[in-house]
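Notebook p. 47: complex prediction with fe (ii) ion.
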Amino acid sequence: MERVTQLGYLGLEVSDLARWEKFATELLGLEHAGTDADGTLYLRMDEHHHRFALRQGPRDDIAVAGWQARNESELRAIAERLDAQGTAVTWGDAREARQRRVAGFIRLSDPNGIAIEVYCGPLVQTDRPFRSPRDIAGFEASALGLGHIVLAVDDYDASMRFYRDGLGLRISDYIDLDMGGAEATRAAFLHCGPRHHSLAMVQVSAPKRLHHFMLQARQLRDVGSTFDRCRDEAVPITMELGCHTNDRMVSFYAQTPSGFHVEYGHGGVEIDDDTWQVETYQAASTWGHRSPAVHAAAAA
Ligand SMILES: [Fe+2]
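Predicted complex, structure tokens below:
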């Protein structure tokens, strides 16, 4: 079965593009990769031309998720499978592909109405190494993709069919979260390569589709220095440093200028599909990841 191989790019619609530019470069350490005539701001984190495309708009949410296919024949096979499963697929034209810096792509919607693009042949600039505006060692990206996204979905089963049976992602594990209801709420984590998860989904009604995106720093010290910088710049920390039960990543969460969160982490297990066994957890973290508000209330 042909599958997508990485979460390749993320389009965000943001209401304050100028604030985002500062946040993404000076705080997160992403590199400004130019703007298009229509005002789209590109950000890079590795040798790919860009990993983020930010457009000004009122939604302050995910605009599009771009999933990479290995090559054009696999992209065609994925398109045909999605079409056979009843998902409307349209091919992007040459001008649209040029703007995305890809050789070809299809566009579709997931069952929640989130715009999805599956593409092949991204522009990769190994002649122009990633240079962070900050003194950091860079990000684990390249073949692992940009990181992960966590989405609030309307229909868990339909979303699972789309991402697992349509795009070809595989289950990594589950976390059953106590969200105050009679039954636990299941979060599903899915991978498309060695990265533990490129996508997680929870069926929950939330103000935004995108709960957070995750960037994986090469060095732990860069998680610490970014945490300090958030504090110095009065960027709200939404979860303090901690370690997740499933991917074992050490990370913290901060609020972006759009209200959804960014997870800034280091480490984490990688998946070998020949030996991986799916597990279920009942907690999201082994230590930490506490809410600063709860912490402050306990101290008061
Ligand atoms: Fe995460």
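Notes: The radius of gyration is 18 Å. The first strand starts at residue 4 and ends at 14.
Next step: compare against the earlier run before touching the bench.
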